[in-house]
Amino acid sequence: MEKKSIGKYIDEDTDQQEIDAELEDLKEKETSQLALAWMRFKRSKLALIGGLIVLVLVITAIFAPFIAPYDPLETNPQRRLEDPSSEHLLGTDNLGRDIFSRLVYGTRIALMIGVLIVAVSGGIGITLGVLAGVFGGWIDEAIMRLVDTFLAFPTVVMALAIAGALGPGLYNVIIAVGLVVWTRFARVTRGDILSIKTETYIEAAEAIGESKISLITKYYIPNVLPSIVVVATIMMPTALLASAALTFLGIGAQAPDPSWGYMVSSGRDYLTIAPWMATFGGASITVTVLAFNFVGDGLRDALDPVRGGS
Amino acid sequence: MKIREYIESKRARFIVTRIVKSIPVFFLASIIIFLIMHLSPGDPAEIMLGAGATEEAIESIQQRLGLDQPLYRQYLNYMSGVFQGDWGVSIRYNQPVLELIRTRMPLTLLLMGSGLIISVIMGITMGVLGALNPNSIFDYSSTVMALFWRSIPSFWLGILFLYVFALEFGWFPIGGWQGPISLVLPMMVIGLRLQAIIARLTRSQMLDVLTKDYIKSAKTKGLKRKAVIIKHGLRNALIPVVTVIALRVPWLFGGAVITETVFAYPGMGSMLVRGVLSRDFPLVQGIVLVICISAIIANLIADVSYTYIDPRIDIDSQRKG
Amino acid sequence: MVEKVNKGEPILKINDIILDFSTEEGTVKALDDVSLTVKKGEIHGLIGETGCGKSVTSLTTLGLLDDNAIIRGGEVFYRGEDLLEMSEKELRKNVRGNEISMIFQNPSTSLNPVYTAGEQVKESIVLYQSDDDDESQRLVLDELDRVKLPDPEEVYKKYPHELSGGMMQRVMIAMMLACNSNLLIADEPTTALDVSIQAQFLKVLEELKEKEELSILYITHDMAVISEICDKVTVMYGGQIAETAEVHDIFNNPRHPYTNGLIHSVPGVKKDVKEFETIPGTVPRLINPPSGCRFHPRCEYAQEICKEERPPLERIGKEHLVACHFWEEVE
Predict the structure, then answer these.
(1) How would DSSP label each residue in B7-53?
(2) Closest CA–CA distance from residue A184 to any residue of chain B (Å)
(3) C 297-316 residues with CB below 8 A of A?
(4) Residues ≥6 apart with Cβ < 8 Å to B63
(5) What mean pLDDT comes out for the span B311-318?
(6) Which of A124, B10, C178, C232 is deepest in the core (most CB within 10 A)?
(7) Do C219 and C236 reside in the same domain of the chain?
(8) Taking CA A268 as the corner, what is the angle to CA A265 and CA A271, rounded to the nearest 5 degrees?
(9) Which of C116, C118, C123 minimizes the C-alpha distance to C159?
(10) For C60-122, what is the HEC assignment?
(11) B319 has a chain C CB within 8 A of its CB
């Protein structure tokens, strides 16, 4: 009986084809790492909803003058504390100002505060993180001690103290919170740098004689960027809540600026007669923070799916 | 027995080392706080007394508080005073800062403590239930709810509670201290938020632990479901959770500051806010210092307790052995 | 459990199990009509390369599969009852531990890191031997001694990470033997042990088989161990059963090409093999397994029919079963 072999592996040529196919496969897989992450992000419905809300908020902030029916600062003593109506969608506050318009303009303040706080804390944190990671040694030790100390401070308490010392005002709140929360940026930056510091291409570049500055700009910073983006997104809720709390407590944006925190604090006295003053202000904060939390969670799960998110 | 003794002494040495390491952190913190208080623009004496103060008044305050001396001198004076029990005098209340703190701190600690207990009970329960029924309707909705609790501003939640339960329903007092019942609403505000964080962490840890091989071993032995989940599963899952909770204790101060203000709860937090608003620097400095000391102690306890609950930790290097 | 089984009668009958795992990348067809019978008082070896489904088969028996496992058909009869029909609660109460226990492959992950070795063995003792505090402590030391652990009192107090791989493996063995079950499934129980300890462990198993009629399903990829203690052997490949026979038949008269290849690839097992040959090719991935007989791509006897029709497991001798279209031609 003639035996015809049909085994795949016995034929030499077939082997080579198999290997080529596998190589092609691998190449495709590597380039689509980012695409995979994007796919995973898209899968999270919450993250998409969050992203949508953030988009709406940004648009509201940019086009505030076109969306708000009234001037947010225009007082109208005749029409104080009115219920929501067709004329005033969300009612009026204790000085007769349209609440809806104030909320709309408040979006500008909120987003600006958030972005600036992230910028300030990011600036400080990334700089210190890069210094610690790149130079190591006692610089690293000193900076890490500093990080440990600041981590011991509760955010609100420290920001309160700083803002209290600086005096009331919007920008003082931004500086105050920024000075406290930079530690998250520092740690992540330093960690990322340390993890690639021992890679051969860094050693090769150093051997060639590339300066530290060039190393930083060419290799370290691009490597750190993805984590920075994630941390920035996660910091927005913290920034918004902290600044709103400070504003509520009396520091921060002062009257008559239409900041949401201020609306809640001034609405507090009128809870029994006109609860919507405080209600809508707080609701806006909640929705904004929620949106950023959705996005932040989605980002974290997308880039690190092992974490057992739902 | 010999081995146990050795580990005990190793741990004792670790505790001592850890305490020693905290000391520079304490001093660094005190310097930072000191600098903050003195970085306000303008003359501190003028600020404290407010506009329209006379030259004499300003000068007398400056002398009294030693504000005319170089900064490092002031710091050293202050710190030596701290160690001797003299933390300055509150401008607003005209009483020793330490005394004021001593009277108000217990109430704040009570609030923080009860908030912590309630959040731990709720959080761990929700986390475990979520992990045992992953991706069920219960799990999904509790995850979304947890996100919600993390996003709602504490002061707004407090106001809502105040409005609904105290003003409308009248079940709770509107403010002040009327006995333990005044504790309930602020405690819930603090607790609900922390509970969300604990629940999320517990859930993800449990899910991870339940896939481990030793859970299979435990099941194979024929152990009851409760024993497998709690004795084998939770005991492992809670290790990082306990650490996170311990590290979050300082955060509770922030929550206390806000809720005490909303509910006019007579604790250290509301006093801090009033101190900040009235530019009462000695008082603010004192309270913030106390809070930082508490935070440092909390971190210390967290590190030490970690060596007790995870036998894999090599005490010397604090790395997994 | 209902039926009383006598020595020599089947105590575990796995019939035609078809099992899939649903994963992100597709469906893994892990088990394809797997059948196996263990008799009371018998040491039954289960051999095959990594990934062929040996561990999966044992996990199926005790209902310890992951949630993404789908059993599409088959039964697992233990003393007359189908374990696959039992609820989790019934399995826990009546089967796991007291009737069937299992030694897992990886001792370092199979022991709970936060409890000492002694505490973990004591758990078994308290459940199945004695719940008196002092007595159970003593019994734990006995069990630790039985697996030849040096200085049982010291080992009792140690945590798993403080023990060597071999010691951890022995602790796990002690932990499971302490359950006094009727059937022991041992999944690669001696990989971390050196040869002398392994020999001692095998002796312990043989003693248990003689004195207490313990039935053992011994999973391994080590032919030498099989030849030493097994009465009967089942060979698995790619999620399918290739051959089942008494141990001397497997070595002297293998009827499946894969079994044949295995025997010839291990030096020293068969005395008259001058050189050892490796089986060309690699183990198939079970997401897209070869059709028909899953060994056909690597088989030198394969024909078209092997690709199209899976050979049934037929009885070719009193205790000899093989699944191959051309079993007669294997030499």
Answers:
(1) HHHHHHHHHHHHHHHHHHHHHHHHHHHHHHHT-SSS-HHHHHH-TT-
(2) 15
(3) 297-304, 307
(4) none
(5) 65
(6) C178
(7) yes
(8) 155
(9) C116
(10) HHHCCCCCCEEEEEEEEEECCEEHHHCCHHHHHHHHECCCEEEECCCHHHHCCCCCCHHHHHH
(11) no
B153 Cα to chain A: minimum distance (Å): 6
**C-beta atoms of C303 and A7 within 8 A:** no
| C277 and C138 belong to one structural domain | no
With respect to residue C150, please indicate whether it lies within any of the assigned structural domains.
yes
- The C-alpha R_g of chain A, in whole angstroms, comes to 27
Do C163 and C83 reside in the same domain of the chain?
no
- Do C55 and C139 reside in the same domain of the chain? no
C176/A152 Cα distance (integer angstroms): 47
C269, part of any domain: yes
Residue pointed to by tokens 């091989």: B213
Residue B258's pLDDT is 93
A307 falls in which pLDDT band (50, 70, 90)? Answer: very low
Mean of pLDDT values over C303-323 = 87
Judge whether C13 and C37 are in contact, CB under 8 Å: yes
Range of the domain at C168: 107-181
Whole-prediction pTM value? 0.81
C310 shares a domain with C225? yes
Question: What is the least distance, in Å, from the CA of C204 to any CA of chain B?
Answer: 20
The whole-angstrom distance between residue C19's C-alpha and the CA centroid of its chain comes to: 17
Residues 5-64 of A with CB under 8 A from C: 5-10
CA distance linking residue B75 with residue C225, whole number of Å: 77
Condensed to tens digits (0 to 9), the pLDDT of residues A266-297 reads 888 888 788 888 888 899 999 999 999 998 88
Q: Quick check: A7 and C296 CB within 8 A?
A: yes
Within 8 A of B232 by CB-CB distance, chain C residues are 112
Do B221 and C93 count as a contact with CB atoms less than 8 A apart? Answer: no
Closest CA to B183 of B112, B81, B241: B112
Q: Which of C104, C159, C162 sits opposite B216 (nearest CB)?
A: C104
Assigned domain for C266 exists: yes
Do the beta carbons of residue C117 and residue B238 sit within 8 Å? no
For residue C93, being part of any structural domain is answered with yes
CATH, residue C89: 3.40.50.300
Q: Distance between CA atoms of B66 and B75, rounded to whole angstroms?
A: 10
Same domain? C91 vs C230: yes
Domains of chain C: total: 2
Subunit contact B221:C92, Cβ cutoff 8 A = no
**Of B151, B276, B296, Cβ closest to residue A290:** B151
Distance (Å) from the C-alpha of residue A252 to the closest C-alpha of chain B?
A: 11
- Looking at C181, C205, C228, which one is the last position of a domain? C181
Can you state the angle between helices A170-197 and A137-152, rounded to 10 degrees?
A: 140
pLDDT at A48: 87
Against chain C, the chains showing at least 3 CB pairs within 8 Å are A, B
Cα angle, residue A280 at apex, residues A276 and A285 outer, rounded to 5°: 155
Mean pLDDT confidence for B154-182: 87
Dihedral sign computed on CA atoms, order B240, B241, B244, B245? negative
Residues C84, C130, single domain; the answer is: no
The structural domains of chain A, ordered by start, are 16-308 (1.10.3720.10)
Strands C43-47 and C215-220: parallel
Contact between residue A166 and residue B40 where contact means Cβ atoms under 8 Å apart: yes
Residue B319 has pLDDT above 80, yes or no: no
Contact C282 A9 (CB under 8 A): yes
> Which one, of C215, C250, C248, lies nearest residue C235 by Cα?
C250
Which pLDDT band, with edges at 50, 70 and 90, does A16 fall under?
low
- What pLDDT score does A242 carry? 92
Q: In what order do the strands lie in the sheet with C81-82?
A: C26-39, C10-23, C69-78, C81-82
Q: Does C93 share its domain with C163?
A: no
